[in-house]
Amino acid sequence: MGQASETKLYKREGAYIPRVAAVHDLCGYGKCSLGVAIPVLSAAGCDVCPVPTGLFSSHTAFPGWYMHDTTEVLPDYLAAWKGIGVEIDAVYSGFLGAPEQVDIIRGIYESYPNALRVVDPVMADHGKVYPTYTPELCQAMAELAADADVLTPNLTEAAIILGEPIGEAWGGVDIDDAEAARIVDALLAKGAKNVVLKGIQRGDGIIRNFVAGQEFDMFEASNEFVPYMLHGTGDLYCSALLAAVMAGRTMAEAVRFAGDLTHDAMLVSAQQPNFRERGVSFEPLLGRVSALLA
Q1: Whole-angstrom Cα distance, residue 293 to residue 12?
Q2: Please, how many CA atoms are within 13 Å of residue 232, restricted to the half-sphere of its CB?
Q3: 22, 92 contact by CB (below 8 A)
């Protein structure tokens, strides 16, 4: 087995700007999904090509949100890409609007067989499934997770992927190293090549992410625990991780960069009005993402 400090998933070539197909929803208010992925990856010198899985008026923590499911338009949307010869270096998926969208993502994989596959299985947190996710969609997401080059679940999402019960323990508290290793190993055994198990808390002021791959042993990347929850932090973490990967950084460097940026963005967010509702504020920190190319 190698080391995460040696493992690079993408080799940046000179002045070439890599293209990332970002398969996420577009949210009008409340920073998440494409509203996070586009600026963060763009700051890392990537050409972000959105594939909108749904249109939301706001994130779902607000009352009265509106959603438009884009599933019907995506086949024609992606066929038009083929017609003009679009090339893609990475496929980064997050929130999905319907089970059929998993088949659409698999079609993207077939069109771009050499593209890096990053799956953020956005469907649940703290023991609760998101309101738009049906059992069929959860199952489809679990199947997609097996195809990932990089998979970034929280504990609730990991339980769904593994077909295990969602209980209080899956909220992220008091999962010891041995249990974290069991979960990560089980996700690798299902087919994911690299796994980042996010957001493990033990009441000691630290939040832990456990990282392992088919080519390297598990290690822990941790940050100070920030005692409030913000919408969009998972999207920021995965986008920052992919930004570092596409900048040619190692997996160890990428997960630590993502954790540090997300932690610091949460501190920036607390200085904004109505920050708990608005979501994570990362804009003043985008210069740090650009510095990945230095």
Answers
A1: 10
A2: 29
A3: yes
